[in-house]
Amino acid sequence: MDVIFLSPGYPPEMSHYVRGLAEVGARVWGVGDSHPQALPDNARQALAGYLQVPRIMDEQDVLARVREWMKGRNIDRIEAQWEPLVLEAARLREAFGIPGMSYDTVLGFRDKQLMKERIKAAGLRVPHSARVRSPAEARAAAERFGYPLIVKPIAGAGSADTYRVDSDADLDRVMQLTRHVPEVSVEEFVEGEEFTYDTVCIDGRPVYENVAQYLPRPLDARTHEWISPIICTVRDLDQPKIRKGIELGHGVLKALNMGTGFTHMEWYLKANGEVVFGEIGCRPGGAHLVDQMNYTSDIDLFREWARAVCWKSFEADATRRYNTAIVFKRAIGEGRIRAIDGLGSFKDQYGRYLVWDNLLRPGNNRRNWKQTLVSDGFVIVRHPRWDDALTIARAAATDIRMYAS
Ligand SMILES: Nc1ncnc2c1ncn2[C@@H]1O[C@H](COP(=O)(O)OP(=O)(O)O)[C@@H](O)[C@H]1O
Ligand SMILES: [Mg+2]
Q1: 187 in ligand 1 pocket by Cβ < 6 Å?
Q2: How does pLDDT run across 76-104, given as a tens digit for each residue?
Q3: 198/163 same-domain check
Q4: Which are the contacts of 206, defined by CB distance < 8 A and separation ≥ 6?
Q5: Which range marks the domain in which residue 178 is found?
Q6: Is the pTM of this model over 0.85?
């Protein structure tokens, strides 16, 4: 089993997938633009070979170089787990005639308007939306859908350039603010709670499933710096409201013709019980969601994903034992982290539920909280009961305080 893996060292968590592939018996060939010396240790150890290319996003160039590099060698899979490269992986698969999801299928997971059209055509509930290229088109969409609306990039990530819009004046302002975005999606604003639906699929069939709740909704978390955003995996997937989201997810996977690999979907639960599709990618969720899922069941999804991709099997016992919450922290002040308050007493009280303390320590520079949800670090806590997990997570959110200056 010979697997080409795009960008094995960046972002750093990619190295875990490389490690997983090697553990299930694959020979892994890495292609990336980092210097081989810059690869994380576990990636370097797991790789059979590495091709450094000048620009990993340059499809034609990467194709030509990989063709030359792999001359005379057999390739069984070409994989990428980083969102900006999933289409390129599909292009390479098609060029080399390798099994896996086609370019057109992957496009359904990348282009937010196309994805909604395909899902809507399957009779599933998506927000009303329009692809918009000018302020005039935006106003026409506003007339059709009414306010409030959401304006966001067609190919966005991390709530970047995403705005809620409540009036004509707001719309004009936001169309100015998003002038640098070539194409935006103008959507009906769906009021409600926000969840994920995550899977590992084999030929479109989910062999692993997860749901997590965002507290608060990602757009709010990204708008207010003082918030310590929480994401908590839901242990009990049999609750009726969660089942409805999972059933929506099943329909979406079918409508988009999912193949084998990770998916990460977001969905909304309205106060009246209606569930509405948000978005989906054919790759895992970011910001340590895979670690959270692993802690929920004490499993290793990096390896199980690899097993699914290489051997179409999933062996872990994914019984859900915990609700696992990640709490992202943002220091007060600019510059370098100077102090962390309340961590000691938090550990005294809840230490046995804490599985990972990854807060930036004093002396480190603050991270840009708008660019990375991870912000100035995080703690992960878990508890078998939902209410207790949230109590502990909220204590971490309010009682641990980081200061910078
Ligand atoms: N139609 C919508 N109604 C309400 N909120 C939305 C809508 N679309 C996006 N949002 C908010 O903006 C966030 C980011 O949008 P999303 O479509 O998930 O893009 P991305 O996560 O790729 O930036 C969502 O998590 C949600 O909080
Ligand atoms: Mg999103």
Answers
A1: yes
A2: 999 999 999 999 999 999 999 999 999 99
A3: no
A4: 199, 200, 249, 250, 253
A5: 128-188
A6: yes
